[in-house]
Amino acid sequence: MKLFAGFEPIVKHDEPMASHTWFRIGGPARYFIEPRTVEELSEVARRCRENEIPMYVLGSGANLLVDDAGVKGAVIRLGEGQFTETTLVEGGVRAGAGVEMGKLVLRCVRDGLSGLECQTGIPGTVGGCVKMNAGGAFGDIGSVVEAVTVMSETGEVFSRHRTELAFAYRSTNITSKFILSAEFHLNEDAPERILKQIKQIWIYKKNTQPLTKRNAGCVFKNSRGMSAGALIDRAGLKGKRVGGAYVSRKHANFILADPGATAADVLKLINIIRQEVYKKSEVYLELEIEVW
Ligand SMILES: Cc1cc2nc3c(=O)[nH]c(=O)nc-3n(C[C@H](O)[C@H](O)[C@H](O)COP(=O)(O)OP(=O)(O)OC[C@H]3O[C@@H](n4cnc5c(N)ncnc54)[C@H](O)[C@@H]3O)c2cc1C
What we know:
The protein is α+β, with helices and mostly antiparallel strands and 292 residues long. It has helices at residues 38-50, 101-110, 126-132, 191-208, 228-234, 263-281; strands at 11-16, 28-33, 55-58, 64-65, 71-77, 86-89, 92-96, 113-114, 135-136, 139-140, 145-151, 157-161, 167-168, 171-172, 178-185, 187-188, 241-242, 245-247, 255-257, 290-291. The protein folds into three domains: 8-77, Uridine Diphospho-n-acetylenolpyruvylglucosamine Reductase, domain 2 (2-Layer Sandwich), CATH 3.30.43; 83-208, Uridine Diphospho-n-acetylenolpyruvylglucosamine Reductase, domain 3; 211-281, Uridine Diphospho-n-acetylenolpyruvylglucosamine Reductase, domain 1 (Alpha-Beta Complex), CATH 3.90.78. Strands 6-7-15-11-12 form a five-stranded antiparallel beta sheet, with helices on one face. Strands 1-2-5-3 form a four-stranded mixed beta sheet, with helices on one face. Flavin-adenine dinucleotide (FAD) binds at residues 22, 57-64, 78, 97, 122-125, 127-129, 131-132, 134-136, 170, 178-179, 209, 211, 215-217, 290. Flavin-adenine dinucleotide binds at residues 22, 57-64, 78, 97, 122-125, 127-129, 131-132, 134-136, 170, 178-179, 209, 211, 215-217, 290.
């Protein structure tokens, strides 16, 4: 019997993950599934569970390094149908997990809603940004999350209000497998004023981050109040290269990938960075990116 019989339009086999990550790196996913509704997601998850197929939830792949050997499981992306809907609600906006954050930020400008400007220049989906509590110097997304709707691996759907949610540096207490949607509480403001703030953030990002090259944002978390980028710079590693992967000269916490770079190149470079930073500063850098 075919495992995903009846779901042919939404299931691909051996889909190259390089097509779905910002690094443009990664071997094939055994199953690549794009459910369009919560019911489809629930049924897909049930079949994965019953057949002991590990599930990986993908946003836009902006914080991921996928191994060259690929993913021996089901990569599930909530980027279609119901998961891409945006609705204005009292005091803010509700958006499906698959909505692109950049588009949501611009929609909020048009509707005169302020609060998501801190997401400017951060590639990702609503699901990925909430899961990672994406943000930085201009604020984190967690501060405007009003509620999330989630689904557990076993298919239960429920909502969590902000009083039950905790957001910390690049993490949340959301442990349910799937974030289905999020509601953000936003303030009314003049579109021109919101846009001005967005433009300022863009200029800052363009000046400090290598946004046009293949990468996955900051590779390591800052540690004990110290900037990981500064520690890497201090270890003399700007420009350090392994195969097709190298440390950005603009921002030392970014690893950039030339066409043809492999996950093995990036992983070797990560190990070298960790060793050298430890030798120089006695700090063991923790990964911010996720490795599949
Ligand atoms: C150029 C560049 C600049 C960046 N700048 C920043 C920055 O300034 N600040 C910052 O915080 N990050 C930054 N990042 C990292 C990245 O943009 C964020 O981590 C973003 O939140 C990733 O979203 P995504 O949808 O791509 O998630 P993915 O990378 O696809 O996934 C990230 C994690 O979220 C999980 N996930 C994704 N969707 C869901 C869902 N629906 N339900 C449950 N789990 C889910 C995945 O399983 C994975 O664990 C940058 C990345 C790049 C490439």
